[in-house]
Amino acid sequence: MKKKISRRSFMKAMGLGVGGLALGRSPMVLSALAASSEPIDNMIIGSGFGGSVTALRLANQGIDTVMLERGRRWPVTHEQNTFSSLQNPDGRSAWLSDFALLGEPNAIDRYIGVLELIVGNGIAALAGAGVGGGSLVYAAALYQPTQRLFEQAFTDSLNYEEMDDIYYPRVRSIINPRSIPKRILAQPEYAGARNWLRLGELAGLESKLVELGLSWRVVKKELKGERVASAIAGEFWYGNNSGAKKSLDKNYLRYAEDSGYLDIQTQQNVTAIEEGPDGRYVVTADEIDENGNPIVQRKYVVNKLFLAAGSMATSKLLVRAKGRNELPALNYEVGNNWGNNGDFFSQITGLPQNIKPHLGGTVPVAIEDHNNPIVPTTVECYADWRFEGVDGLIPSVGMSTPPANGRFIYDSSTDQVSLNWPASDPEITQISDAGTETYAKIAAAWGLGREHIHKVRSGHCEMNQPHMHSGATQNPIFAGITAHPLGGVVLDRATDNIGMVQNYQGLYVMDGALVPGHTGCANPALTIAALAERNIEKILLRDF
């Protein structure tokens, strides 16, 4: 029987009523569930921003939900040694890789680590793994785009005023991000951020402090030596050992589990989705050990299925299901309209000699060049461990507004799905040109020429090359790397306006796969979470 929800009771449930702690099901119980003819009512695949938001809002309604996460839990320990470091990466750093992806190019044991490199044709993407998904490895930037650029991305699919009034604030109310306090910005470790802020102002561009999902109280302890130097040392790719990062396991997921209505099952690698009897969905998942080896395969029958495994995994699951005729009514739009958020990377040299480019944390300052004559850009400074001992340099990452020209293709001969990205397309190569123009303005503000701008190119390309040829991927050739994969199952094209997959009642997409290629020169985490807040509210009112 459907549970009827009044508007008043729904809005009341947006608060955080919590009860007892939900206990995870044992493998024996999971096996019984898989063997049972009685379906699981609600299942979420993935525990990143979209999945975490969905889980909490279902829990607030008293709706039992099972969440499958391929990775493990990563609780910050009293010893502050949960994660590996860039200086000494080990198996914890990478998802089933023989080599560390970033930092020192160590050979590592294959392990279900926190960061995966997914190689396609023309580009590769980085994705998080573990309870909390991408929030474990993102730079903690919760950056709201301007209305103009938001509407350029989503056209008529979303109402910016509604997002700005309701859903962006709703995410902030849970994670509580703050921009860097002035007292911390004034510290020697943040000299690069201070200079970046000044350079943007001198260049006549919009300089702003980015809201970050960090506990500045913990960052202060790092600065005092009371906690391990982690956030201030640019440690975010492999997780944050001081506990400063407000990853989703500390807020959305914790609140949902505390309610007693969410059951998170870890090390459950979903491999297939198909249409089952009576419009239900059959989910195939391998329980894996910590080295990625399958222990047992299970099939679950599910009434309502929420896909939140991230743009890459969600898109691949659906494209494979379509190619194998397991979800035959998926429309043409499934697998299309993917983009890299316009990611590019560079450094400017010749700057003041008191900068410590290896310190200062993650993207605290952004410079917006939204009137760039080529395409709009935003550039953010960040700490890079490689530049310890190097002075007069600021490393940075940039974002733009690329066309969503990427496409996922199923190959029946290998039963695999790959991403095709036309890296040489002039609409894509102009992103690097736009970045060069922005950096030229910033450098000129300090009296520097273009010879002080280095490596403006699409993607975070400082990857460790041994991994590229380790046999972990079939195609090691690509033009760039993105940490912000977006699209593949786009809102109002592959889904309806609130994320239900076209032609499939009760099948929803809740993650970055809904976003058409970029979020308007801004880090996408906040927009993905706000979109999930919007969609789950409307799904609950319509479909539950």
Please tell me about this protein's structure.
The protein is α/β, with parallel strands linked by helices and 544 residues long. The protein has one domain (20-543): FAD/NAD(P)-binding domain (3-Layer(bba) Sandwich), CATH 3.50.50.60. Helix content is 25%, strand content 21%. The protein contains 13 helices and 20 strands. It has helices at 7-12, 27-35, 49-60, 147-154, 160-175, 182-185, 191-202, 216-224, 252-258, 311-323, 426-444, 465-468, 525-543; strands spanning 40-45, 65-68, 115-119, 122-128, 206-209, 262-265, 268-275, 281-288, 294-307, 336-339, 344-349, 365-369, 377-381, 393-399, 407-411, 416-420, 453-458, 478-482, 486-488, 507-509. Strands 1, 2, 6, 7, 8, 9 and 20 form a 7-stranded mixed sheet that branches. Strand 1, helix 3 (49-60) and strand 2 form a beta-alpha-beta unit. Helix 3 runs parallel beside helix 13 (525-543). The chain is globular, with a radius of gyration of 22 Å. The termini are close together. The model is unreliable at 1-24 and 465-478 (pLDDT under 50).
Strand content: 15-25%
Number of domains: 1
Shape: globular
Question: What's the number of helices?
Answer: 13
Radius of gyration: 22 Å
Q: What is the CATH domain class?
A: Alpha Beta
Give the overall pLDDT as a whole number: 90
Biggest sheet statistics: 7 strands, mixed
Terminal Cα span:
10 Å
Low-confidence stretches: 1-24, 465-478
Class from secondary-structure proportions: alpha/beta
Supply the CATH superfamily name.
Answer: FAD/NAD(P)-binding domain
Helical residue percent band: 25-40%
Q: Can you tell me the CATH architecture?
A: 3-Layer(bba) Sandwich
What is the CATH T-level topology?
Answer: FAD/NAD(P)-binding domain
DSSP strand count: 20
